[in-house]
Amino acid sequence: MSAFIGLSEHYERVSANRLAQASFAALAVLIVSSWLIMPLFSSSPRTRRKERFTPRGKHCYIGGGSEGLGLSLACQLAERGAHVTILSRSQAKLDKALAEIQVRTVDADSGGRFLHPTSLTRSANLPQTHRQSPTQIFQAYACDLTDPSAAASTLHTACRAHTSSSPDYVFACAGGCVPGFFADMPAAKHWECMEWNFRTCLNTVHEAVCAMKKEGKEGGRVVLTSSVLALMSFAGYSTYSPSKYAIRGLAEALRNELQLYGISVHLFLPATIYSPGFENEQRLKPDVTKKIEGPDEGMSPDGVAKEMLKGLERNDFYITYEPVGHMLRNSRGITPRNNLLLDTFWGLVGT
């Protein structure tokens, strides 16, 4: 009898091992097959995708365009022949930004690579311009984007300089971050961060979308800037991540809805940007947050703006550009799993 029981247990172990091996083999086949087959179901071939994003001669309207990512984006769009309108609360910052869009500084020894003026010696500077044509229109408007009526009025004013009553491409880049522990921050500060990020984004694009729909502007684009922290969050970002998750939800709803009108929507999910506010964020950031993040692998605003434009050329909806972003975009981040194998299976089925 004991021999029979031992044989039965051995058979069960062998069967379990074979089942596990078969399961992992099936999973591997499914992953490889998906990787090979998915390109066949993309919206269009890559060679045709890149032809879609053509900013030359288009009116690009940028909320938060006076510094950081927004200003770098404005300069690069100007270099591609676009008409550019930038918005910010500060008129002084706008005046400085508009001058930078008009004239850039290039180091004679840099092979034409753009360098920030503060990084150059005066003798090495050669003035050039982002402008590609004398007909390009560059505008700057001081506007509080948390005020919906002011945002709407400013958009219509900006469009009067153009033949169209709506911009061609809208970019929502305004926002900020005040890191800290949830209980250490007053509730009012949480709502303030929501206004800085979600409300400014909403007000930047709302009137523009209404005008695009009314005009029947097929081929228009709406680009919302969120963060990789809209894909996961952790200690220290309770004031910041909720607003970025809200922007993500808005982008997903708009993408679905605006297909009806030929208007495409994109969600940009950048990682760390060495923007003017970065040093202040680092001072406020709790030590445990820094430990979770690990060594910082951020990029300059110029580099991040280039990655956004590459994503638009690919016609991506979720635009990520570094390994963590790619992984988070295709995973559940740090959300706990109920069952590793079953959740992985349902994730693949869902995809």
Describe this protein's structure.
The chain has 351 residues and is α/β, with parallel strands linked by helices. Helices cover 48% and strands 11% of the residues. It is built from twelve helices and nine strands. α7 links the parallel β7 and β8. α3 packs parallel to α4 and α3 packs across α10. It is globular and about 70 Å long. About 9% of the residues have low confidence.
Q: How would you concisely characterize the structure shown here?
A:
The chain contains 12 helices and 9 strands. Keywords: Endoplasmic reticulum, Lipid metabolism, Membrane, NADP, Oxidoreductase, Sphingolipid metabolism, Transmembrane, Transmembrane helix.
Number of helices: 12
The count of DSSP E runs of length 2 or more, i.e. the number of strands, is 9
Instruction: Please mark out the parts with pLDDT under 50 across 5 or more consecutive residues, or reply none.
Output: 43-51, 105-126
Mean pLDDT: 83
